[in-house]
Protein 1
Amino acid sequence: MTPSGQSKILLVDDTVENLLILFEGLRHDHSLITARSGEKALTLAAAHPQPDLILLDVMMPGLDGFEVCRRLKENPATSEIPVVFITALHDEESEVRALSVGGVDFITKPIQPMVVKARVKTHLALRQAYRDLATSLDQLRWERELIEDILLTMREHPLQQEPFVRALLTPVERTAGDIFLLGRRPDGFYHALVGDCTGHGLPAAIVGPMVMDIFLAMTRKGFLPEEILPEMNAKLHHRAPANIFMAGVFLELTPGLDAVRLWNGGMPEPLLWRNGTWPMAWPSSHPPLGVISAILRDDWSPAVPLRPGDRLFLYSDGVVESRSPESEMFGVARLKHALDDMTRKGEPLETLVTRLNAFRGDDLSEDDITLIEFRSTPLPTTPERGSA
């Protein structure tokens, strides 16, 4: 586009008479430049300001039109300029070749000015539409990144580096749908929430800050889980869209880490590991948060005593629903075997990602991977071999 607002068109033909016909038909509406060789056309196409459209003859001495178009498309500086071939060739093979090297249209000679004007108008409109779309996509991309930055900042919280907890969070996208929150009441009890929001990306990530504020504020003020969960549920039910909700496990640990209570709404069952056995699991018995308008305050599992060395594992469905190339799910049995082996060897939680990748083969993960481990006794001051 020239400073005057006219579209700039490069006319390429080795025959002066053809250039004159094109020039006369287009000069009133466009800014025109001409070239009588392929070499000159390549130079003018790369010069600033670049043409918005190129009308290109095929049969020329030196570089023919096919080769000129191929080189234009290979050069990142000129690859986006649409090329319309104008040629005396009438055969189907030539037309196919013109399109295969990157041309957007094929006009046969003799030149008919009204046809050329109509085709030029169409392709200039398409060119402007592509530019507008690219600008809109750039704006959307910038806005998305800005929103992601805001959401990630909002989701940050002063997670205490407690020695009894390890966390693995591997999101599919930058803004994960999975969330892990940890807080401590004034009386020393610990609260933890592992959540899995519907979907991925921004819609799922928006839920995180909504529940995080309630969780942290009420925990710090000494509210009990039975009081916190209904507030979370109500906020999600009334403020989130109907198709956005959060499966979650809320747990309460005693100050001495010798007992735990859990509430499971739509999450895979937490698993208790004890000396190579799995004596306890907590299947979901409630709908996810936000699905119904109210949840019962006293609908919690009884407190379960913990012994020294016990491990409690919480995880998202992205772990157990990972699929092999044969569409077989990883499942709870394989997870138990992997966690037992990792625990005995003192391996970091990241080892699970390696095992899941091996199970999936070349298939990419389609869901966030979250694994949280709580220990009934703190980690030793000297880390175990391979521990995170």
Protein 2
Amino acid sequence: MSAYLMVSLHSQVLNNQPELGGNKPTDPVVAKFLEHDLWDFGKGWKNLLNNLRLVIQPWIFFNLLKPWLRVFPVSYLSIGFLTLIALMNRMRGAIPDTLYSEDFLFSSA
């Protein structure tokens, strides 16, 4: 998947446009994403990419550490990562809502 497509699929949610599909503004977990020290409040493509990187970091870091956790099992670390990943999965931006966009009818992806 290209970075452009990935950011485009998440853009409605990351720009806080719930009327176009995505997050519910009342979700307290998703609202806490904005409290991250590195959260980028800009509306440009690069800003959205930076925020998307922050959201997927726990999954990436866990997969980088997983071989070491097999060698040295630290159950609390594994449980903590899985809990954090479950919280990050509360953001539902990559599920395309074709009801609001005719662009997906002609997508080659």
Protein 3
Amino acid sequence: MNNLYDVIKKACLTEKGMALQEEMNQVVFKVDPRANKIEIKNAVEKMFNVEVLKVRTANMHGKKKRLGRFMGRRSDWKKAVVTVQEGQSISFIEDL
């Protein structure tokens, strides 16, 4: 991946993700499906100026959705749970 913004698509701001951030100092991101853990770690460290201890990834399958009588499917995506060093944090809500 050439660009940092190609690796990290956006942050997952869900209830579960916010609980992980408060309790275990972990942040959840939607990332490019081709990105590996090393690329994700380097992108987070450069974008947010923090030290990453661990990266866990999961391939998420798109849900089946119905629109009238037609069945469709959402796109598959990759989720990354990034553990940040104690004392450092990535904040999305406070910056608003």
